[in-house]
Amino acid sequence: MKKLLAVFVLFISLSFSFAQTIDELTSHAKKAFKERDYKTSIKNYEKALSLIKLEEIDDSNYLKILTDYSEVLAHSGNLKKSIKAFKRIIEFTKNRNLKDENIDAKIALVNLLMMKKRLDTSEVIIRDILSIDSLRYFTKSNCYNYLGRIYSHRQDYDSAIGFYKKSIEIDKINNDSSSMPYSCLDLASIYHVVDSQNLAIDYLILGEKYLRPKKDSYKRAMFLNRFALVYYNLGNMVKSEKYALKQLALAKKMKLRKSSMTALILLGDISLYNQNQDKAMTYYQKADSLNDLYYSKHYKAIINIGLLNAKMDKGIELDKRDLLEFDKTKKSISDKTGMYSSLQLTELKLSAKTLSKKEFNNSFNYLYSKFDSIQKPSLKRSLLLIKYKYSKRNKYYKDALSALEEYNNLSKEMRKANNAYSLEELETKYQGEKKALKIKLLDEQNTIGKNKISYLKTILVISGIALFLLLVLLFVLFSLNTKIRNQKKIISKTLKDKEILMREIHHRVKNNLQLISSLLTLQGRSIDDKMAIQAINEGKTRVRSMALIHQNLYNKENLTEIGIKDYLEKLTEELFLTYNIDGDRIKMELNVEDIDVDVDILVPLGLIINELITNSLKYAFPDHVSGRIKINIFVKNNDLIFEMQDNGTGYDPTEIKDNSFGSTLVSALTSQLGGKMSVDSHDGTKIKIVFTDYTKED
Q1: Residues 6+ apart with CB under 8 A from 189
Q2: Taking Cα atoms as reference points, which of 126, 121, 57 lies closest to residue 92?
Q3: Facing residues of 631 across strands?
Q4: pLDDT value of position 9
Q5: How would you classify the pairing of strands 639-646 and 685-692?
Q6: Cα(394)–Cα(405) distance, rounded to whole angstroms?
Q7: CA angle (117, 121, 123) in 5-degree steps
Q8: Are 272 and 264 contacting, i.e. CB atoms less than 8 angstroms apart?
Q9: Closest by alpha carbon to 689, among 657, 661, 658, 667?
């Protein structure tokens, strides 16, 4: 009897231990998933599933673990394994007659199949679900939404629109604020593609009404992006920029890198449209930096096309590297995608300088017919703008005037068809351009008329001889003055040539430093060691701190000195972006006097400041703790004083390794500039460096 009792107690304890082990494993798996450690999460789920015996565990518990495991696989990018896992769920729920769970698993499977472009298989599963009686309303809505997406991928837009409208009607009847915004957003996207912008706006407004203030921040970012794109297509840059800036602010707050990148690209396009090429290039470069973090060929191509157009519009001569990048972009874009048309427009714009009038017109007519056949007025409008600029540059004023008039008429038709607001500033600009072209056209006609009165030139020649004699006398009287003026011109030309040379030097230094930064980025992609990657990233920020100096000098009249205030603002912005620091979490306070510092001083000083700010951002505020960094720079008694203070965790200076590259670099550069540094690590970190007689002697 005692032996039997002992065996029973042992059985109970083993069962309890078994259950506890599965619970612990799933708990660890969930925690790892929240921390985006997908590898650890998958490992724990697989261990838990290996311990489960279906006859000894509750069906719902097993189903929950298997579903969570499938979702983690999908998030990790392992779609093949995730599809297999969902097929297990479908088989399991089918055997146990779990109807709703079986349908939910099939819909999740369709989502994965759509990612792998398996449209036909997805449609078969969805239509099979729709054939089931007594479906839940939201299941029906999801099914019609997926059919809309399937037919949208096939570019059968009429069918896609019909399915989306069915989904929206179901959601509207049931007042579903979860599904409704997605269907409205998808339908608006199709109307945007087919240039029915008025209907796109209508459905965006409808979907936006169903957004929940606290739960739907991610969806709101998507809506802001779509509003901005629609208004961009309408030519209403004021509204487009307003929505794009709102999207960027929300994406930064939520740390949505992809959304931040799409907002930056659109802001670059808007700046390009408004002929602010410098601003456009800044936005594109920031988007490129974000794309480096998870690299997408699609977005890289869009960014490259934007940067290329900005350079061409600014009149910057394209170098071999630009042309090589464009060739790579062409190879990465399929002729079946919507982006291919943008590529063709850029290619025509790029080659226009070397094309004869006949060659240009042949290319223009081909693209015009193509865009007309696929009903793309927005692309036709861009094409007409290229023709206008080509004709104006080559003095074909009649062709330029014709292209400008057609461009304006097409813009009016688009705004009228889409019920858009009248843009008076565009009309004014058009009238001004039209007037200027007419004047040039009249000038050409007047040149022909002038030949009829050539006999007047004889009288003018006679008068000219008399004037020449007078001028000879004046020349003798003012010869000395003329000689002085000539000497001034020579001196002025020499100085101007020197300035151009200096600008070119700074420009090339900046480009070489950016090239080094790009090479470091490429090198980092082939390295798995975290320490090595960290070292490369830190090297990039140091190179960028020097590149900023030469970039600012290239754009300034004074080619030897630069304002430290403007430089420091740009440097801190770059560092926050590089380390993905939320400006709301860590506040940066800059109290910097507007001091001009020689480039030989600012390069090492910039590296010191870069090193100290980087160190504070990385180590002073662990575990997403909020805080503040304050920097003061001022001149006192001909000494340049740098003070930096943060309210972070602080550190013990004695624990810093002597061979630490960062600390060695700061110490060496401080000594090079004749500075003295003091550190106080109580209640955060306070650093003060005094540079005695910082001005550079000639």
Answers
A1: 152, 200, 226
A2: 57
A3: 590, 644
A4: 40
A5: antiparallel
A6: 18
A7: 95
A8: no
A9: 667
Rounded Cα distance between 679 and 685, Å, is 7
What is the C-alpha separation between 166 and 147, in angstroms, rounded? Answer: 10
Q: Residues 560, 598: contact at Cβ < 8 Å? A: yes
In whole angstroms, give the CA distance from residue 136 to residue 99.
Answer: 11
* 308 neighbors 345 (Cβ within 8 angstroms): no
> For residue 563, what are its two tokens?
């304002």
What value does the mean pLDDT take over residues 216-242? Answer: 86
Instruction: Give the contacts of 71 (CB within 8 A, at least 6 positions apart).
Output: 82
CB distance 581 to 621 below 8 Å: no
Q: What is the DSSP letter of 508?
A: H
CATH code of 586-698, in short, is 3.30.565.10
What is d(CA 517, CA 536) in angstroms, rounded to the nearest whole number? 9
pLDDT at 20: 53
- Which band of pLDDT confidence, cut at 50, 70 and 90, is reported for residue 286? very high
Per-residue tokens: 568: 């420091």
Q: Which long-range contacts (CB under 8 A, 24 or more apart) does 432-435 make?
A: 433/404, 434/401, 434/404, 434/405, 434/408
pLDDT at 249 over 90: yes
Question: What is the domain partition of the chain in residue ranges?
Answer: 19-135, 367-448, 469-559, 586-698
Torsion of the alpha carbons at 551, 555, 561 and 565, rounded to the nearest 10: -70
Q: Out of 233-247, 589-603, 647-661, 670-684, pick the least confident.
A: 647-661
Of 87, 96, 98, which is closest to residue 121 (Cα–Cα)?
Answer: 87
Contact 550, 509 (CB under 8 A): yes
On the 0-12 / 13-18 / 19+ scale of CB atoms within 10 A, 647 is middle
How much helix, strand and coil, in percent to the nearest 5, is found in the chain? 75, 5, 20
Q: pLDDT tens digits for 318-377?
A: 888 888 888 888 787 777 666 778 788 888 888 887 888 888 889 889 888 887 776 667
Contacts of 268 by beta carbon, 8 Å cutoff, 6+ apart: 280, 281, 283, 284, 287, 303, 306, 310
Whole-number pLDDT of residue 300: 85
Q: What is the pLDDT of residues 524-575, one digit of tens each?
A: 667 777 677 767 776 767 676 666 666 655 455 555 677 888 878 888 887 8
The answer to whether the CB of 518 falls within 8 A of the CB of 530 is no
Integer angstrom CA distances of residue 467 from 281, 361, 442, 455, 483: 54, 50, 31, 19, 22
Say if CB 302 and CB 280 are below 8 A apart: no
Fold of 19-135: 1.25.40
The angle at the Cα of 574, spanning 573 to 579, to the nearest 5 degrees, equals 105
Name the pTM for this structure.
0.52
For residue 204, give the nearest of 220, 216, 193 by alpha carbon. Answer: 220
